[in-house]
TrEMBL record:
Upper lineage: Bacteria, Bacillati, Actinomycetota, Actinomycetes, Kitasatosporales
Protein name: Signal peptidase I
Database matches in InterPro entries: RmlC-like_jellyroll (IPR014710), RmlC_Cupin_sf (IPR011051)
UniProt xrefs under SUPFAM superfamilies: RmlC-like cupins
């Protein structure tokens, strides 16, 4: 069992609360699903588009305003509880139009995904 608070716990792992990247002895370790408590200041954007996505994702707006970009489509999460689901193979990026908090659930939890910046890999526990 593990109890915690999303904001401080998420800060320890770039927002991610649960997934394959947690120590296997930690109850938050999972190879089936990843969960992120994403706190994004206004103007923050994903460093690079996610290309060749291997997971399905659900993103729910907790507060603020958050824009997701998909090929040929833009989705704006503007009211608490707005959400979007996308599947494998769907390229995407995001931008915080206002200070925003979003809950992201991705499955399965796939090692090797990370966005470190312009020269880093395109996906990752930092992405969404």
């Amino acid at each position: 069992m593990y109890t915690g608070k999303a904001a401080p716990d998420a800060a320890a792992d770039r927002g991610w609360l649960l997934g394959h990247f947690k120590d296997p002895a930690d109850p938050r370790h999972s190879e089936d699903v990843e969960i992120k408590w994403g706190v994004h200041p206004k103007g923050e954007e994903r460093a690079r588009w996610v290309r060749g996505e291997e997971r399905t994702a659900l993103q729910v707006l907790i507060s603020g305003r958050f824009r997701l970009e998909f090929p040929g489509r833009t989705v704006v999460l503007a009211e608490q509880g707005d959400y979007v689901v996308w599947g494998r193979g769907v390229d995407h990026s995001w931008y915080a139009e206002e200070d925003a908090v979003v809950l992201t659930v991705r499955w399965p939890s796939v090692p090797g995904y990370r966005a470190d910046g312009p020269d880093g890999p395109a996906n990752g526990p930092s992405g969404g």
